[in-house]
Amino acid sequence: MELKIQTASADQLRVKPAEDTPLVFGRTFSDHMFMMEYQAGQGWLNPRIVPYRDLAMDPAAMVLHYGQGIFEGLKGYRCRDDRVHLFRPEKNLERLNRSARRMCMPEVDAGFQLEVLDQLLRLDQDWIPRTVGASLYIRPTMIASEPALGVRPANQYLYYIITGPVGAYYPEGFNPIKIYVSDEYVRAVRGGVGEAKTMANYAASLYAAEMAKKKGFTQVLWLDAVERRFVEEVGTMNIFFRIGHELITPQLTGSILPGVTRDSVLQLARHWGLAVTERHIAIDEVLATIKSGDMVEIFGSGTAAVISPVGEIHYREEGYRVGDGGVGEWSRKFYDEIIGIQYGEKPDPFAWVRVVTR
Ligand SMILES: *Cc1c(COP(=O)(O)O)cnc(C)c1O
Fold first, then answer.
1. 201 CA from centroid of ligand 1 (Å)
2. How many CB atoms lie within 10 A of CB 325?
3. Backbone torsions φ then ψ of 259, nearest 5 degrees
4. Is residue 250 domain-resident?
5. How many domains is the chain partitioned into structurally?
6. Residue 261 CB less than 6 A away from ligand 1
7. Is residue 352 part of a domain?
8. Nearby residues of 104 by Cβ (< 8 Å), 6 or more positions away
9. Residue 216: how many CB atoms within 10 A of its CB?
10. What does pTM read for this prediction?
11. Of 195, 331, 338, 340, which one's alpha carbon is 20 to 30 angstroms from that of 169?
């Protein structure tokens, strides 16, 4: 496939936010986007980078009715020496293709997509913030575009990538979150689509998230959908517990999204010789170990925040403070290490970084 590039003309350039204004996540987008269409029987067609623009879509486009749509989220980082890094983009492309298979959508060529990401970031490199901790968020998206009603996999798809600058997640330092355990509503059920990054999962999570917010909590702690007993995820992050000297995270059972950050934490932990276990962990065990003092720290992991320390858990009208409610030792260690690798400040023993050449 040959990538065509149409650069934005002067009047198509978008307004860049000033370096010193705080960026609200997901509101500002860069000058260019990538797109290509899929037609059953022909494959992916016309891959191109074009000025950021509206999409024209038939109101009968299948994604608008049946939710056949998937996405990814990764970041481009600007190092102190001005080089640009991607962090494990192959993992995101691998997951995109896994999501595609689960949702009966066509896969993309990962090698070609890596080149597309390089090109897109090169072209919009002035959009990658220089502020420490800030980055360029990258959102690959695939939707069913065939105009037809009727529940079946579509024959036409649109794949596109938009990017936009995002600020540091913790401009004033770590901020431990208070989370609300939902034992009424669930995010995903085993055998369902929880392990795919597909749109329906986020629609399904809104109601419980709003309820938690109204009660003054930042995120929902999701339990398994069958017994409402085993911990699955926190908001749109994976979750880790440190009990004594052991690091525990729920095993992947089909309803949990396999995070790239989760995998990175696990690899680092094993590399450092920590005791690591992927297993079922019941909410009763979590609360009992908090009460006994054996629970040293809890944190979420995801691309947006990297590590998000949990200061307090609320379950059935009772609050449980984790440790002293502050930031745990391991939370900080994983955060510093991963950020250090992403920005090229620390050695990269697993070759996680892809350098985008100019
Ligand atoms: C994207 C996502 C994560 C985190 O994945 P990363 O690859 O680490 O960013 C975790 N849970 C859910 C539900 C997600 O959508």
1. 11
2. 12
3. -75, 145
4. yes
5. 2
6. yes
7. no
8. 68, 153
9. 9
10. 0.97
11. 195
Q: What confidence tens digit (pLDDT) does each residue in 91-104 have?
A: 999 999 999 999 99
Phi, psi dihedral angles at 61 (to 5 degrees): -50, 130
| Cα 302 to ligand 1 centroid, rounded to whole Å | 5
Rounded distance, CA 174 to CA 158, Å?
Answer: 38
Q: 203 C-alpha vs ligand 1 centroid, how far in Å?
A: 15
Distances (CA, A) of 277 to 43, 147, 227, 303: 42, 47, 22, 22
Domain that holds residue 45: 4-166
Amino acid at site 204? A
Instruction: Enumerate the β-bridge partners of residue 298.
Output: 241
Sequence-distant (≥ 6) Cβ neighbours of residue 194 within 8 angstroms? 187, 188, 201, 232, 254, 255, 256, 257
DSSP character string of 155-188: SEEEEEEEEEEE--S-TTS---EEEEEESS--S-
d(CA 233, CA 159): 28
Q: Dump pLDDT digits (tens) for 10-65.
A: 999 999 988 778 888 899 999 999 999 999 999 999 999 999 999 999 999 999 99
More confident residue, 60 or 168: 60
CB 167 within 8 A of CB 129: yes
**Integer Cα distance of 80 and 65 in angstroms:** 46
- DSSP annotation string for 95-128: HHHHHHHHTT-----HHHHHHHHHHHHHHTGGGS
How far is it, in rounded angstroms, from Cα 171 to Cα 168? 5
Q: Which helix (H) or strand (E) holds 336?
A: helix 329-342
Q: Quick check: helix, strand or coil at residue 224?
A: coil
What Å distances lie between residue 46 and 52, 96, 154, 271, 337, CA to CA? 16, 20, 19, 43, 40
Confirm or reject: Cβ of 236 under 6 Å from ligand 1.
yes
| Burial letters 52-90, b for 16+ CB under 10 A, else e | beeeeeeeebbbbebbbbbbbebbbbbeeeeebbbbbbe
**For ligand 1, atom 12: residue with the closest CA:** 236
* CA dist., res. 302 & res. 222, Å (int): 15
Q: Which CATH number do you get for residue 121?
A: 3.30.470.10
